Amino acid sequence: MTIQDAYSKSLIKTSNLITPIIIGTNSSSSNTGLQVMTDRNLINRLERILSLNIDKIIIFGVPPSHDSNGTQALEKNGVVQSSLKIIRDSFDKKIQVIADVCICQYNLSGHCGIVNQNNYPDNDKTLKLMSKIALSYAESGADTLAPSSMMDGLVLSIRNKLNLNGYRETKIMSFSKQFSSLYSPFRLTAYMKVSKIDKSNYQIGYANSREILRKVELDYGEGADVITIKPSMANLDIISRIRERVRCRIAVQHVSGEYAMLKAASRNNLINEYDWLLGYFACLVRAGADFIITYEAEGIAELLSAQ
Ligand SMILES: [Zn+2]
What we know:
CATH class: Alpha Beta
Number of domains: 1
Shape: globular
CATH architecture: Alpha-Beta Barrel
Bound molecules: zinc ion
Number of strands: 10
């Protein structure tokens, strides 16, 4: 092991890592490197994750059918709800489960909300729906809800809904999601529609750091327990500045486009992916990240446990 590797390994812990799981009714894999799995294989997968000492996952659902308002996200036996129940029955509290709260995988438009006549999400209608979805996931066993639609007032709306229904202990992991082309592999894997989706009027632009920080402070003030920065790339300055502004935990998501680029470079023998990731993730921790959501969590955990 090189001295640099040793430094990186001392900064990253498996307790920092969160594994994303995309769950649907049919399993599939594609050249994006992302996989959709069904709940039939969930127990085996989680046993492996736990054996690597990873104890946190985030679930993204891909429903069997879609409609304009993404109503499958509210189904009592929807893909996320059934998976949460299986996890709770099989693992009790051994694994912390975060559930992504959005409807872009569930509706026809691919937008993160109920769209109006102009094909933009209606903020207030979307808040009501997201709060109901969050409650449904909490009732099914989620420890943490992760709203990612970037609607104004979303954290407060979900916090109030959870508190009113006896879920004061359920945490909220709020996403600070910047407008980016790096989400396309996830969309190719999970969406009904992947082209011509313009989310620039509700996701935050890269260039406006004051707007990014203002939105994070609003989410923190509304009761967010964890702030998640997405994507991780080119955001070390933002992570570091948020670290100074909020007292809650900070997560960073190494998103699907970053993962796909890494895999493509590795496939072509241009870089060693694990050498790169060890150094890169150490930098994310150095900047202030407490948690890293990454499709490579299991590979990194294996590497950390190797002597
Ligand atoms: Zn969304």
